[in-house]
Specification:
Layout lengths: L4 H13 L4 E4 L16 E2 L4 E2 L14 E8 L9 E3 L3 E13 L8 E7 L8 E3 L3 E10 H28 L3 E3 L2 H12 L6 E5 L2 E3 L3 E5 L1 H25 L2 E3 L4 H33 L5 H9 L1 E14 L3 H6 L8 E12 L13 E10 L4
Length: 363
Amino acid sequence: MKKDYKKSMDQKARAKRRSKKYLLVGTSIAAGMLLGTAPISIATPLFTVGSQQVYADLISGQLFNNLTTSNTSGTTASAPFPLAGTTRNVDFVISANNGIDLSVLNGSRRAVLAIPTEMQGLVNPNGTGTFQTDILLPGEELQPLLSIVDGAVTTLVSAVENIVNLNPLASVNLDEVYAQLALLENLSTLTSAEVALNLQMQGDEYIYGELDGSLETIIREGLTEILDGINDAVQAIQATPNAGSGALGTIAAGTINTALSATIKPAFNLTFATATGLVGVGSSLIGTLADASVLGETTVTIPTLIQDPNYSDLAAAGVDMSVPYEAGFVGNIVKADVLSIDIASSSDGYSPVFYQAAEVTPP
């Protein structure tokens, strides 16, 4: 039985209209978020978002409900670094999930490492960092792209149906086209990606990386991959003779394939080029999607070079050197115009590096 392509496309269109406003990108957005037509509203010990009022006990603009930071120093109070005048490689890894919609706030999204006062001037970035995330995109903002692609595919399907009706001894299988289109509608293949993160310093107090540009890269590359899949599926379609149709079926398939090459695919290509233009570098759509996105499971690595502090400087700063010195760093992911992070052992993202209480004296 010949497949009713138009009926199938109508069913898909109805299903899309019933879809959620927000579409999940990736595989590990934390459960418990409230998705719907209104801005996400979540109450946590640090934030209340929804009435356009956001307050924070410690960190203004924190982008996640759950966030921790670890480091690779391997030190503890019982196994500290010696004060040996050494420069050490230490990576700080920020892990977060259950993102919060802070679109009501101004500012840039940044991954930040706050440096304790006694260590300022002794800590620097060690090359570039890395940023890996899953993204929740607002479906409404995707409508310009979805409309163009749906229109191109619907026109293609209608043209294929018409030519097949005129040549019923051959058929065209569009299952892969439908499958690739579904990936765009659901964004199920735009999973977490890792990108390089350029690191900067603000004075001696903070090392940070701007995330907004990296988010645009992740979204652009993910959408481009899906669009490439749709285009590849369209370019690969061809007619085949129906079973038992013999030489007449071969002629029918040839007629359809000529039409596909001469008119149907070129018409699709012309419209589809508009869609690919929407996800190009500098696209306003990509910027809009990045601005409106909410982050899910996220990992940021900030590699550093840390010079051992000097015993006498620590003592002069009032550090109790009868016990190992706890250099308390704080890693966080925030949205803010101005970086301002208080360091406290109770802060989300607190991650200490320990130094022994006595200076190493060369023999």
